[in-house]
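Render this sequence as a predicted structure.
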Amino acid sequence: MVRSPQRSGGAERAAPSRGAALALALLVTPASVVGQPWWEMLGISRTVPVPAWSYAGETGPERWAELAPEFAPCRGERQSPVDLRDARLLTYSPLQFRYRSSTLSLVNDGRSLRALYRSGSYLSVGGRDYQLEEFHFHIPGEHRINGAGADMELQLVHRDPQGQVAIVAVPMKAGRRMNTTLSRIWDHMPAAGGTSYYDRQSGINPLFLLPTNRSYFSYPGSLTEPPCTEGVEWFVLTEPVEVDESYLHRLRQVIGHNARPIQPLKGRPIIAVMR
């Protein structure tokens, strides 16, 4: 279970997973921390074991659609990530980030580092409000812009009251710039898959992980991991955020490579909204 920190100011980590059922139990987070459990957000029932999948080998991306019936969308027509090029330029319509600070609640699910978010923070775009549910990291970055990929990618997952998912992708490049928010997350990163960290005394706000320039590409796509559900609205920021290379090194150590290969665009429109 997610544990509260000890009174000494440190925090206990959950015990390592002993199988799929225990791993799922470790990933349960109180409703006060996040509006919806991650397995429901990905369309997976908590009552059945989650099929094994990975980023390489027999359970890698090329085989995802074959691993379980619920993973069939992974062979769909509108899959993500994509290479963003030949975009149609539109009049600027800003992404408005109305994020509040939230309790530090981290999960290492064995494939990514996730920060679960309490209700009350929103992305507003085109007259619609999407509530932030969680954010996580991919290394290297999953999307490309004119063939160029980022060293790491932050993905902020939102949902509106009708269930529409909107994900904001923030490219990150290796450099020397330290980031207080990333440092706080990295300092408490659960090191083993199926473990978590929760500290009600610490807060984070992903506003401090965003670039100054909020220009973006937009396109219709999917989740980039099983079950690869389509109908996701993607907003990929154009300006990368520089972060110290030590952050990338640490994530590689703990998570390893967790980027899905580029998927065919298949005629989908790409919109560029430049500030």
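Summary. The domain at 20-273 is CATH 3.10.200.10 (Carbonic Anhydrase II). The chain has a mean pLDDT of 85.
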